[in-house]
Amino acid sequence: MIVDAHLDIAWNATSDGRGFLAPPTPGYLISRPALVSAGVGLVCATLYTAPARARRAMRTRFVYENAHEAHIMAVAQVNYYKSCQLQLIRDSHELQTYVRSWRRGQIAAVLLMEGADPIETPSQLGAWTDMGVRIIGPAWSRTRYSGGTGAPGGLTHLGVQLLKAMRRKHVILDLSHMADQAVADAFEMWRGPVICSHSNARAIVPGDRQITDATAAEVARRGGILGISFYPNHLRDGSKAWWTKNRTSLDDVVRHAVHLAKAAGGPEHVGLGTDLDGGIDSRYGPIHDLRELKKFLPGLLRRHFSAAQAEGIMGANWIEFLGRSLPQVPLSPTGRGSGSGA
């Protein structure tokens, strides 16, 4: 089973009309039929909302001006996933049952909130875990909780309170998009499971959107996973004019996987978090068809890793991580597992 830890499925549908149930829109790759055909069985489906300042970068008018608007937009995305009858994995038992009985043609998701502004106050987090959210990345650009991409800064007072609430409610922390100071602040106080769902190596592609080798090593030390993004300017350094003329390839994906595996101390800390269709079409990405994931990527990985290690990067590493990091028992309406402490 292939696992992809970052797909903006509901954002694509609600902001741009690219529905999940039909074949992919021309020029794009992600839909339920495409994922099934490629052998993808589990994804982290995001709740992504674009702040007003992202209107130009994301080429959209579907933006929020305040936390309440972000909240409404993210709830609409939860409802979209429900309308698609996408099975949500909420705890380790559900994951184990699903993986054990999985057959090609099935797909399930773990809900990941990318940018925490839809959480109007940390005290509201229980409502989101009740809706199925199990992973939260506090930042995209700057949010009320954290400095982010292109917006230096640490965790805010609200951010500190949010991380405390996340720990109490057994939510996984996603460092992708968090500014360096915010990452440092999080490492200082966070004692729960941690990932970078879709971040590549800064040593290969400079800039605050990628992660340092030190961050990769610390995430690995804490038992986390690093998801490789397929976004073109996360794969190669250069201007948009450069990579539009020099299409990225799966070799670029493998290069980041090899580098992060070394930084992390082993490939068991590396997985996929493609972010395919996340704000850009497939013209400049590393694949033309989602089936290339299964057809070509394992063989390219085998040039550097064993068969078992390549299988881990394709999905088994995420399954193992989620199996020990999701709540061990179903959460009650308060957001706590029955009988569990904070």
Helical proportion, percent range: 25-40%
Q: What's the order of the H and E elements?
A: EHHEEEHEHEHEEEHEHEHEHHHEHH
Which CATH C-level class is it?
Alpha Beta
Number of helices: 13
Oligomerization category of the chains in this entry: single chain
β-strand percent reads: 15-25%
Low-confidence stretches: 338-342
Query: Residue-averaged pLDDT, rounded?
Result: 93
CATH topology: TIM Barrel
CATH architecture: Alpha-Beta Barrel
Silhouette: globular
Largest sheet: 7 strands, parallel
The CATH homology group name? Metal-dependent hydrolases
Number of strands: 13
Cα radius of gyration in angstroms: 18 Å
Class derived from helix and strand content? alpha/beta
User: How far is the N terminus from the C terminus?
Assistant: 33 Å
Describe this structure in words.
- This protein is an alpha/beta fold and 342 residues long.
- The protein has one domain: Metal-dependent hydrolases (TIM Barrel).
- It contains 13 helices and 13 strands.
- The protein has helices at residues 9-16, 32-38, 67-83, 92-101, 125-130, 157-168, 180-189, 213-221, 232-235, 240-245, 250-264, 292-301, 307-325; strands spanning 2-7, 40-48, 50-51, 63-64, 87-88, 108-114, 133-137, 146-148, 151-155, 172-174, 194-195, 226-228, 270-272.
- A hairpin with a 2-residue loop joins strand 8 (146-148) and strand 9.
- Helix 4 runs antiparallel to helix 13.
- 49% of the residues are buried.
- Mean pLDDT is 93; it is low at 338-342.
